[in-house]
Amino acid sequence: MNYLQNAPNPAEALINVQGNGALMKSNTLRVEWPTLALLVATYVVWGGAVLWVAGWSVPLAVVIAALAIAQQSSLQHEILHGHPLRWQWLNELMVRPSLNLLIPYGRFRDTHLAHHRDANLTDPYDDPESNFLAGRDWAALPGWVKLVYRFNNTLAGRMVLGPAIGQWAFMRGDMKTPCRRIMISWLAHGITAVPVVWLVLQSPMPLWAYLIAAYLGLSLLKIRTFLEHRAHEQSRARSVIVEDRGPLAFLFLNNNLHAVHHMHPQVPWYDLPMLYRGEKDRFLACNDSYVYPSYGTIFARHLVRAKDPVEHPLMHRALDDRTPPA
C-alpha cells in the first residue's frame, strides 16, 4: 500500500514510498507484531509493578507503573490510528481500560482525531489539544490565574501542573457540551476502570500511590506535547520534529517525529524513523525547520523558561470575532 494514499494533504505529500518494500510490508501485515508485542509487554510490566514490586518498594513500583501508564497512553494513540490489527473494535478493546484512570479512551480518540485537522492546529477554539488561549479569554483571567498559566508554559510547569490543568479543561469542556457520545465514553470509562481499581486494591500498592503513578505517567507525556505544535501562518509548519532516539522516543513511540506523524498518521510507529531518514531535508523544508536535536536540548532551554506565550500570537483580540464555545 502507498502510505500517501490517505495522507491528509496529498498535494503537499512529501515522499512517494511506493516501491519501498519494508514500509509496504509493514502496512499490509494482518498483525503488526511489534505493536502487539509491546502492548503485551506493557501490561506485564504494569502488573509486575503493582502486584510484585510494590510488595518490597512502593516508590520503585510508582516509577515503573508510571512508565507503563505512559507507554499505554502512547499505545492508545497508536491504536486510535488503526493499529495493530485490521479490526478496529478489537484494537480498541485491548486498550479500553485506561490505566491512567483519568482520560476515557473514547474521548481521547475523538478529540485527537479532531486535532488531526491540520488547518486548525493550535487554534484555541477549534484544536482540542491547543495550549494557547485566545486574546479575549486571556485578558479576562484574574492575575493569579495568569501566573499559573505562565508557569504552565515552562516545561517544569507543564510536568507539575499540566496534567491537572489539562484534566480540568478537558472535563469542563465535556460538561459544557454534553451529548450522547460523550456520556457513553465516560460511562464506558467508568466501567472499564473498575477492574483496574479493584486489582490495585487487592495488590500491595496503596491506592494513593497508584494515583501518584497515574499522575506521573501523564506528566511524562507532557514532555512530548510541550512544544510539539507552534503558532505559524502555514499549517504545515506547525508540527515539530525532535530527532531524539533515546528512551523518551521509545516511550512516545517515535511521536517525537511529530511532523512526520501528522503528514502520515497511518504509518506505524516503528516505521516513522525510516520514513524521516529517507527524506529528512524535505520534511524539514515542509515544516520550516521546526526541529530540535533531542529532548535534552528542550530541557536545557525550556525547563524554567517558556517557549511560547499563553495568548495565541496570531489571534489578535480585535480581529477574533468568532463566538467562543458555550
TrEMBL record:
Signal peptide: none annotated. Keywords: Membrane, Transmembrane, Transmembrane helix. It comes from the Bacteria. The chain crosses the membrane at residues 43-70, 182-201, 207-227. The keyword Transmembrane helix applies. Residues 56-283 form the Fatty acid desaturase domain. CDD domains: DesA_FADS-like (cd03509). Pfam families: FA_desaturase. GO terms for biological process: lipid metabolic process. This is Fatty acid desaturase.
